[in-house]
Amino acid sequence: MSSSSSSPRSHTHRTTVGIPSRCWCGSKLTTFGAQTKENLYCRFYRYEVGVKRQSEHHLFKWIDETIIDEIRVVDSKHCQLQEDVQSFKSTTKQCLQEHGKYIDESLLELKRIIHDQKMLLFELRRDPTLPDASLESSVTKSPSPLINISASDIALGTMAWLYAKLST
Ligand SMILES: [Zn+2]
Questions:
Q1: CB within 8 Å of 60: residues ≥ 6 apart
Q2: 56 and 50 Cβ atoms separated by less than 8 Å
Q3: pLDDT of residue 1
Q4: What are 46-85's pLDDT values in tens digits?
Q5: Which of 50, 76, 82, 109 is deepest in the core (most CB within 10 A)?
Q6: Distance, CA 22 to ligand 1 centroid (Å)?
Q7: Beta-carbon neighbours within 5 Å of ion ligand 1
Q8: How far is CA 34 from CA 9, 15, 39, 46, 79, in A?
Q9: How far is the CA of 4 from the centre of ligand 1 (A)?
């Protein structure tokens, strides 16, 4: 590959990835069309002065190379994004499954506790040794103060248990 009025592909080749914003010297870049036979009209980035003074080392980059660079960057970002989404999906799925399992177990346990406590309450109401049990069942539908306290204790205990379960 020969060099001519435009800079050669060697030396400064591929030192900047993607579209360059400025030359290494900090100067603004301009686009030019190559005048060489091999790369006629191919466009490149170059500091204006660098085109005239070819002995100076200023950035030179073909525009088609910068586009390929950009495509590669977008490609790799796209791949990374796909991996991230996949990982997020599997993590979320696993998390949801664990939560679902935990909720199912908690519900089962809660059902068991409610059942046990219903049975306990039933036995308490039937217990003849309790002072107000016989009176309560024959006279009024409202439970005796003792049973009231037991029921509220049970309800409170259940709520506390549920809260402890859900907040862990
Ligand atoms: Zn420069």
A1: 6, 7, 8, 11, 12, 13, 44, 45, 46, 50
A2: yes
A3: 41
A4: 999 999 998 999 999 999 999 999 999 999 999 999 999 9
A5: 50
A6: 8
A7: 23, 25, 27, 47, 58
A8: 11, 19, 6, 11, 35
A9: 19
Q: Among positive and negative, which fits the CA dihedral 70, 71, 72, 74? A: positive
